[in-house]
């Protein structure tokens, strides 16, 4: 495949991923400022979507590239991103299933067992210093009793309005919620930790809960959407909607909110 230039995904929604509910409680946040990569989930089944999530990408990084394997080889380059132009160039190892994000993360859709193995992120900072970080994940065939969705997750989030300034209200509009929904929760960031939680809703008892930090400035709706009022630049970042169905299947979608100064 010839290298092709295309816009990077920075502020549009990220497609939802499917995880088993048991994996959610094992996710831990990074306690160090150094760059690390987390495979979400660390072990996945064929057909799943895998997010190689980058923690603590340094602010002085001006470009980065993703590779398959453990060595920086042109023939194994998936894609590279240039911060100055906010653009990506696809590499020869891009299969059409990978999406690279401006925060350094890499999404691989509909994985197969051939996708198992090491992935390498190379960063280049403004002083032209290069750093390499590796991550590994494993893809297995569906095990007995593991039921996969008949169709890929269609859960998405839309920002309304799409461009947000300080003191605006913004609706994080949930679309295509799964059937037989048991409940859902919103978090700031990617990891489902209590101190990042914004709100949750239980379908069976029709009960919603907002965390203290968001009292008076957030509203959660039964259709899965979240309204944030009078936003500031501190509200910028990733927001995650997680859903749990009656059979304990979990789906999630992510949106990147950028609050602009007036």
UniProtKB/TrEMBL annotation:
<dbReference type="GO" id="GO:1990782">
    <property type="term" value="F:protein tyrosine kinase binding"/>
</dbReference>
<dbReference type="InterPro" id="IPR036179">
    <property type="entry name" value="Ig-like_dom_sf"/>
</dbReference>
<dbReference type="InterPro" id="IPR013106">
    <property type="entry name" value="Ig_V-set"/>
</dbReference>
<dbReference type="GO" id="GO:0009986">
    <property type="term" value="C:cell surface"/>
</dbReference>
<dbReference type="Pfam" id="PF07686">
    <property type="entry name" value="V-set"/>
</dbReference>
<dbReference type="GO" id="GO:0007165">
    <property type="term" value="P:signal transduction"/>
</dbReference>
<dbReference type="InterPro" id="IPR013783">
    <property type="entry name" value="Ig-like_fold"/>
</dbReference>
<comment type="similarity">
    <text>Belongs to the immunoglobulin superfamily. CEA family.</text>
</comment>
<protein>
    <submittedName>
        <fullName>Carcinoembryonic antigen-related cell adhesion molecule 3-like</fullName>
    </submittedName>
</protein>
<dbReference type="GO" id="GO:0005886">
    <property type="term" value="C:plasma membrane"/>
</dbReference>
<keyword id="KW-0325">Glycoprotein</keyword>
<feature type="domain" description="Immunoglobulin V-set">
    <location>
        <begin position="43"/>
        <end position="139"/>
    </location>
</feature>
<keyword id="KW-0393">Immunoglobulin domain</keyword>
<feature type="domain" description="Immunoglobulin V-set">
    <location>
        <begin position="163"/>
        <end position="259"/>
    </location>
</feature>
<keyword id="KW-0732">Signal</keyword>
<dbReference type="GO" id="GO:0002682">
    <property type="term" value="P:regulation of immune system process"/>
</dbReference>
<dbReference type="InterPro" id="IPR050831">
    <property type="entry name" value="CEA_cell_adhesion"/>
</dbReference>
């Amino acid at each position: 495949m010839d290298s092709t230039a295309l816009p990077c995904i920075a502020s549009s929604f990220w497609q939802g991923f499917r995880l088993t509910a048991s994996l959610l409680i094992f996710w831990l946040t990074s306690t160090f400022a150094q760059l690390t990569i987390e495979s979400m989930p660390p072990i996945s089944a064929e057909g799943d979507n895998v997010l190689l999530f980058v923690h603590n990408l340094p602010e002085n990084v001006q470009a980065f590239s993703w590779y398959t394997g453990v060595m920086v080889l042109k023939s194994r380059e998936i894609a590279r991103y240039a911060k100055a132009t906010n653009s990506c160039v696809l590499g020869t190892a891009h299969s059409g299933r990978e999406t690279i994000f401006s925060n350094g993360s890499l999404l691989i859709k509909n994985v197969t067992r051939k996708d198992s193995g090491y992935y390498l992120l190379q960063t280049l900072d403004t002083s032209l210093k290069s750093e390499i970080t590796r991550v590994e994940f494993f893809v297995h065939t569906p095990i007995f009793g593991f039921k996969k969705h008949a169709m890929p997750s269609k859960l998405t989030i839309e920002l309304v309005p799409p461009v947000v300034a300080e003191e605006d209200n913004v609706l994080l509009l949930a679309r295509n919620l799964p059937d037989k929904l048991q409940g859902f929760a919103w978090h700031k960031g990617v990891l489902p930790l209590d101190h990042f939680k914004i709100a949750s809703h239980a379908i069976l008892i029709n009960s919603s809960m907002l965390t203290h930090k968001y009292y008076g400035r957030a509203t959660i709706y039964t259709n899965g959407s979240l309204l944030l009022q009078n936003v500031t630049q501190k509200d910028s970042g990733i927001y995650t909607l997680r859903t749990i169905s009656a059979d304990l299947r979990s789906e999630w979608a992510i949106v990147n909110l950028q609050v602009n100064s007036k």
